[in-house]
Design a protein that fits this description.
The complex is a heterodimer of chains A (509) and B (488). Chain A is mainly alpha-helical and 509 residues long. In chain A, helix 11 packs antiparallel against helix 14 and helix 16 runs antiparallel to helix 18. Chain A has 20 helices and 4 strands. Chain B folds into 2 domains: 262 residues, no CATH class; 220 residues, no CATH class. Helices cover 76% and strands 1% of the residues of chain B. Chain B has a two-stranded antiparallel sheet. In chain B, a hairpin with a 4-residue loop joins strand 1 and strand 2. Chain B is globular, with a radius of gyration of 22 Å. Chain B starts with a helix and ends in a 6-residue tail after the last helix. The mean pLDDT of chain B is 88. Classes of the chains: A mainly alpha (509), B mainly alpha (488). The interface between A and B is medium-sized, with 33 and 33 residues.
Chain lengths: 509, 488
């Protein structure tokens, strides 16, 4: 396999998987499951191959992997794929999480064929977003992804699934439309001979001095359309006040889809900032960085307080995602090498730790069929799980501490880097955000205390501990969380050059 | 480039063929006895006749534009491609008619014959270069449409639809003529080319008469494409008419009206000035209103047909955006949008027609769990719904993208935002059908059978362009790019 085709293989392997899944007989459910497992395993291995061939010293797009085929020549639209140090960690994370999620979805028994077909389709579109080097292509993948998500939440979700699926779809679509307007406006604004959707051709401060006349006043093109793109991406992250779809979607989605949603899809929002909004509008990004930092801070604090108030454990973890993605936003607002590195690392680390949390809640749900920490009538939903489920508890503790940012586990390093990065520019915000860390520890430990300690309540006595399959998909994540907590260099090394490149571009404005 | 009458006829083959088809069909229908239900030969002749119109219109696409009949009709690539879209729309409606149970067997030939007549009117409208020809086109199209709407004579709603349609239509024609007579009074000619040159040397005082006159003239055209505030008739007519007729109404008259609107905008209003500002301003307001009112009204509907009717109003509003920019990018986007819209509408109405035939009505609940009872139909309808909402990689998205290019190229940012927000609103009700089909349990688990092989094949065939044009749209946009409006 030539390395120049590697991205194509990663992108299309899941898609081939979809077609094969659709051809398999509906009744052979195990065959479909194994096929999905093999397919995602192959994809994951391919992402590792990509990692091994990656040249850590190149700051921009890696020439060796680039794919560029004309798609619509009259509009200069290319099927153009590329990978750099920012998209590589996300690619590997996607490969890993989808593989593990297929294992965790083994118990899905409703319309197995449709489920795995959509799941593999989702994976293909996610890779498309991370690889796309053409804004048009990026937009197509960004939107197509909504279709499998809509059905995955809507068909296999919890009680209120329809509402959640529709809300998710409409919210994201709203953001995308603004992005589409921005994209087309960019195409014409780039004018002067470079009418293009190429992300590389658009970047640099090309639009800095462009002015728009509307209603008798002039607007700065870059500021106006930075806001458009910002809203599009912020809805995905989600940044306060665009976060209200998230608790519904997360809680209603089936376990594996929650994992993907929290682990990968939210990162697409911040990835959008790094790949599109920042490089294309560097001056506007710098101009708005204060606002981004404050919004990030609100995310951190508000998300943490919301999490603390939840009685549904899945909702609690969902709000903790809001809080943790706030840290990523803070890192992005810092615009320093340390802060940005921290942000990208946090994107990866939050992907693994929050995936663990959602998977564990899924495991618990399969036993209890409810997720109440405290039931609406005030009685305990869980109690004494530590005695009843020792293996489960150990994994849960690892996940919780990783998510809390305990030194030695992955969350700590990325959060520390973010704080180091923003301290110089936003001292007040740093101090306030530290309170968020404290709150994070508070709601997680409080939740842990209520669920795991105390006497084993009657209904918990029938619960069985994790089985071999469940252990099998938790172990890789445990290893990732611990190893990258002690030795984050494998991730930091690959992103360093690309992040440095972006920061130096931003520092010129 | 004028040609004499006899030579003109040779360029007028598509229209002549359409007329020939219509008269041929009347004769063929006369040979059937009352009790003969199947009309295989009749429909076959209709297909052949319309296909020949299609082929001859296609020939004209690559030819040099020219004006015929002493410059009262223009045959240019733009009009030819619009004619092809109309013929395809008629063909699709005839296909649905042949399968539908919504129209009584005896009435089907009447529909086909009159639809062909409407088509002739539409074709005339799209290449009119003379106010009189334009008016004849509109009237041919309208009068036959009134009859079509009231096709089910014994049905109250159908009669009501016909009456409403003709009342509204009559009034708007009157208003339009009133406007036209003033325009003639000022410019002294009804030929577009001469009018355009007369407009260049217009006195400031004449504008006081001309601007309201053009506004009145606009009413007639606006009524044809059902744009707000001249849309009141359309949901009632759409709902009262039999399903295949509704399909036909939401494609052919709209495309014809838009074609005329584009030609008029390009001929009269392309030069900057007070007239241009006024026309673009009116169109902008109307387009924004049309999109919004159409979408908001579609949300609350119980009948899928009525919902599609309102959504077609909003699509007309979106296409108006491509008209009001008055440039080649705009024309191209309208052509692309019409093609995409044609196939999406045909599939949507075809599936709704098939489902309504099964259940007796087309209320939303009828679609519950369709996915588990009849997957092929449900998938086709879901694809089309996503496409209508503008989700890539489907043709509806590309069409919307082109409209955005037209609007943003002119820096009409506010209109672009309004269009964007509207497509979010439209997603809500399109998603509603998908939600019912896929997420709701079926009323019974028994699979629906009995959709004829013809139906299934046709739906799949019509779905293919919806998918393909979303990814491989270079050919079509090149074609649409060549469809330039010819101005002398």
């Amino acid at each position: 396999m030539q390395s120049s085709n590697l991205l194509n293989w990663i992108l299309w392997t899941p898609f081939i998987g979809v077609i094969v899944t659709l051809l398999l007989p509906k009744a052979k459910e195990n065959m479909i499951r194994f096929w999905a497992l093999i397919n995602t395993a192959v994809t994951f291995i391919l992402t590792l191959v990509l990692y091994s061939k990656f040249d850590v010293t190149t700051p921009g797009m890696q020439e060796a992997f680039n794919v560029k085929i004309p798609w619509i020549s009259s509009f200069n639209i290319f099927y153009s794929l590329g990978v750099d140090g920012i998209s590589l960690p996300m690619t590997v994370l996607t490969g890993l999480l989808f593989f593990l999620c297929v294992l965790s979805s083994w118990t899905v028994s409703k319309q197995v064929k449709g489920y795995f077909a959509l799941f593999l389709f989702l994976q293909s579109t996610v890779f498309g977003v991370f690889f796309a080097m053409d804004f048009f292509l990026f937009y197509v993948y960004w939107e197509v992804m909504l279709i499998p998500m809509f059905f995955l939440i809507g068909i296999w979700g919890g009680e209120n699934r329809e509402y959640a699926a529709v809300k998710f779809f409409l919210y994201t679509f709203f953001g995308s439309i603004l992005m589409l307007v921005g994209m087309v406006a960019l195409y014409y604004a780039s004018g002067k001979g470079v009418d293009s959707f190429s992300i590389l051709a658009l970047q640099g401060g090309k639009f800095k001095s462009l002015q728009l006349e509307m209603f008798g006043t002039t607007f700065s093109f870059s500021k106006l359309f930075f806001i458009f793109l910002f809203i599009g991406f912020a809805i995905k992250v989600p940044v306060f006040p665009f976060h209200t779809w998230l608790p519904h979607a997360h809680v209603q989605a089936p376990t594996a889809v929650s994992v993907i949603l929290a682990g990968v899809l939210l990162k697409m929002g911040t990835y959008g900032f790094l790949r599109i909004a920042y490089p294309i509008f560097p001056s506007a990004s710098v101009y708005f960085s204060d606002a981004i930092a404050w919004l990030g801070l609100i995310n951190v604090i508000y998300g943490a307080f919301c999490a603390m108030a939840q009685t549904d454990v899945k909702k609690l973890v969902a709000y903790s995602s809001v809080s943790h993605m706030g840290f990523v936003m803070l890192g992005l607002a810092a615009m320093t090498v340390t802060g940005m590195n921290g942000a990208v690392l946090q994107m990866f680390n939050h992907g693994t730790s929050t995936a663990m949390m959602f998977l564990l809640i899924g495991i618990l749900y399969e036993r209890s069929h409810h997720r109440w920490i405290v039931r609406p009538d005030g009685s305990k939903g869980f109690g004494g799980l530590y005695t009843q489920l020792p293996k489960f508890s150990i994994v849960f503790i690892i996940a919780m501490f990783a998510s809390m940012g305990l030194p030695g586990l992955s969350g700590f390093i990325s959060e520390a880097l973010i704080f180091l990065g923003i301290y110089e520019r936003f001292t007040t915000i740093t101090v306030l955000a530290l309170i968020g860390l404290l709150l994070g520890a508070a709601y997680l430990l409080w939740m842990f205390k209520r669920m795991f300690f105390g006497d084993v309540i009657e209904e918990c006595k029938s619960y069985t501990d994790m089985n071999a399959r469940e252990i099998a998909y938790m172990v890789p994540l445990c290893i990732a969380v611990i190893v990258f907590g002690i030795y984050p260099a494998p991730i930091l090394n690959v992103m360093r050059a690309s992040v440095g490149n972006l920061v130096s571009m931003l520092s010129m404005y | 480039m004028g040609a004499n009458y006899l030579a003109s006829l040779s360029h007028y083959v598509p229209e002549l063929l359409a007329c020939l088809t219509m008269f041929g069909l009347i004769l063929i229908e006369a040979t059937y006895k009352e009790e003969q239900k199947t009309r295989g030969f009749f429909f076959l002749s209709a297909y052949i006749g319309l296909a020949s119109v299609l082929v001859f219109s296609a020939f004209a696409i690559t030819k040099e534009p020219l004006s015929i009949f002493t410059n009262s009709i223009i045959i240019d690539p733009f009009s030819s491609i619009m004619k092809m879209i109309m013929v395809l729309g008629t063909l699709g409606a005839v296909l649905i008619t042949s399968q539908s149970k919504d129209i009584d067997g005896n009435l089907k030939p009447e529909f086909v014959i009159m639809a062909t007549g409407v088509l002739v009117g539409g074709m005339l409208l799209s290449s009119a270069n003379n106010m009189l020809v334009l008016f004849i086109g509109i009237e041919t199209l309208s009068i036959l449409s009134y009859v079509l709407a009231s096709l089910r004579k014994e049905d109250e709603r159908s009669s009501e639809a016909g009456l409403k349609y003709s009342l509204y239509g009559g009034i708007s024609s009157g208003i339009m003529l009133f406007g036209l007579s003033h325009i003639f009074g000022v410019l002294g000619t009804i030929n577009f080319t001469e009018m355009a040159s007369a407009l260049k040397t217009i006195q400031q005082t004449d504008l006081i008469v001309l601007m309201p006159s053009f506004l009145l003239f606009f009413v007639g055209l606006g009524y044809k494409i059902a744009c707000v505030p001249f849309h009141m008739w359309s949901p009632d007519v759409y709902e009262g008419s039999p399903l295949p007729v509704t399909t036909f109404f939401s494609i052919v008259p709209k495309v014809a009206g838009l074609a005329a609107m584009i030609r008029i905008s390009h001929t009269f209003f392309s030069d900057p000035g007070a007239l241009n500002v006024g026309w673009v301003g009116v169109l902008s307001i109307v387009a924004a209103l049309t999109m919004t009112v159409g979408n908001v009204s579609a949300i609350g509907q119980r009948s899928v047909k009525r919902m599609l009717a309102y959504s077609s109003i909003s699509h007309a509003g979106v296409m108006l955006l491509g008209v009001l920019v008055i440039n080649e990018i705009g024309t191209r986007s309208v052509v692309f949008y019409s093609v995409a819209y044609l196939f999406m509408t045909l599939v949507a109405f075809y599936v709704v027609s098939a489902v309504a035939d099964k259940y007796g009505n087309d209320h939303f609940e009828r679609f519950n769990g369709l996915m588990y009872r009849y997957p092929a139909m449900a998938v086709a309808l879901a694809v089309v719904m996503f496409s209508l909402a503008g989700i890539p990689p489907l043709s509806g998205f590309v069409a919307k993208f082109h409209i955005f290019t037209a609007v943003l190229n002119k820096n009409y940012y506010v209109l672009a935002i309004i269009a964007g927000l509207n497509s979010v609103v439209s997603l809500y009700y399109y998603l509603k059908i998908v939600r019912l089909m896929v997420l709701k349990p079926a009323e019974s688990t028994e699979p629906i059978s009995g959709f004829s092989l013809m139906n299934q094949g046709a739906i799949v065939a019509l779905c293919i362009p919806v998918l393909l044009l979303g990814v491989f749209w270079e050919k079509l946009i090149t074609l649409a790019d060549g469809a330039k409006v010819f101005i002398q």
